[in-house]
Design a protein that fits this description.
Blueprint: E1 7-10, H1 20-35, E2 39-42, H2 56-66, H3 90-102, E3 106-111, E4 114-119, E5 126-131, E6 135-140, E7 148-150, H4 158-168, E8 173-177, H5 184-194, E9 200-204, E10 207-210, E11 216-218, H6 228-234, H7 238-246, H8 262-268, E12 279-280, H9 283-296, H10 299-307, H11 314-318, H12 320-327, H13 337-341, H14 364-379, H15 388-402, H16 406-418, H17 427-434, H18 436-451
Helix pairs in contact: 1-8, 4-5, 7-9, 10-12, 14-16, 14-18, 15-17, 16-18, 17-18
This protein binds one RNA strand of 75 nucleotides through strand 4, strand 6, strand 7, helix 4 and strand 11.
Amino acid sequence: MSNKKVRTRFAPSPTGYMHIGNLRTALYAYLFAKSQHGDFILRIEDTDRARYVADAVEFIENTLKLAKIKPDEGPHDGGNFAPYIQSERKEIYKKYAEELVSKDFAYYEEGENGVAIRQRMPKTGETTFYDVLHGNITIANEELEDQILLKSDGMPTYNFANVIDDHLMEITHIIRGTEFITSTPKHVLLYQYFGWEIPTFIHLAPVMGKAEDGSVSKLSKRHGATSFGDLVDMGYLPEAITNYVALLGWNPKNTNQEIFSMDELIDIFSLDGLSKSPAVFDYDKLNWMSSEYFKKMSDEEFAEAARKYVKLDENLSAKFVYLSSLLKTRVTKLNEIQESIEFLMTMPDFDSELFINKRNKVNVEKSIEILTPALEMLEKISAEDWTVDNLNEKISAFTANTGLKVGTVMWPLRIAISNKKVTPGGVTEILYLLGREISLNRIKQSLDNLKNL
RNA sequence: GGCGCCUUGGUCAAGUGGUUAAGACUCCAGCCUCUCACGCUGGCUACAUGGGUUCGAAUCCCAUAGGCGUCACCA
């Protein structure tokens, strides 16, 4: 066994939806295979006709691609063990099921819909299997029901097909969720009936979600987004999601590093870093990791990633790379951007309360007093000199002349051009983004509004 | 309910008989500062409970409790 090439597989059913828990299972199977210079196989388990969703296979492949998980073999990639879609392997299962019947390890059963084949379980004794995370697990055979191997429609059940395929496809390590622990003895019995080598099992703890009332349960719709696609739609970078998910139930040895590229993960991954207790999906941590990725991007990279999530006017579009430099450190997910920059395109409603700021010693009267000469000063700056650096220089000089604190001048100015308490960037950045004409108009308008109170 | 798995701060987690029980996220305080953010400092909070074993237990054993899973012609 130790000399055999490691081969793992990800075997989802075609539902057109990639649950975070499933993605993590695929990730670990991939990381383990690659860390051992082995193969990672994608196999579609579509033996339940009722559950089939159109284009699901393509969806799964696209999702894995986005997550940078690359199958060595699969429906699209092909391989020596094709086909990799179970519905196309129907005859194979039938042959093996009949072999079991001939050896009396299984039997035919007449049902409402036709004839099915059922596995015969021993009534006494117990079955033990080894799991890398849990050690030996033993279950009494009397707990095992005679299960259906081949359904009356000719399709195999999961419990049968997975054993046949894992053996035929030479899978060495089965990485899947803990929900399969109690059915594993049935699989082991099957391997024994056929005289096949039993693969190594690794049953992963589930990914949990936390509800608003604080209760914890398996991650589901009630916890908000639960799929990789949902998270991408919200504007989390695929790399950040994968990185976060990798650490949900696994952690590297001898390091506190948390930000990993896929290559680094492959390099450092090992089975003994896997944890056997459930992990709660935590948006706070995901947000932090997401922002770490944003901060590491260049302005251009961030702008490119963010473009798909925003609607800009001509002016802002031209300055978006610069805007991105301001947004990078302030965003946790891309779908937050639009709201935070909307004020640059449409002036929010006037609110005199915003001009009152105790810390900077400003109120309405003071604002009028400052804004009036400030407007005159700014009007003298030409459109071509309307740059962040120059604006900063002029405003600083203006402030020095007034003898006021910097904040006392900056506060009303910023409010006058934004009508927002919090903005991404300060006065000079916003003046630049707005451009000379719009900036001046906004200040005039705000000044009028203040005087007409 | 039977069977199985799990149990270190609010969350992710180091730790494999002797530690002041790491680190990260969140939160709080301070510094920086043209708002916010970034950055920097510092701080709060944990071994589920009860028995053993041992000179010594978060680490080993046994109970109890709680959580989760499974008992389909679903996967």
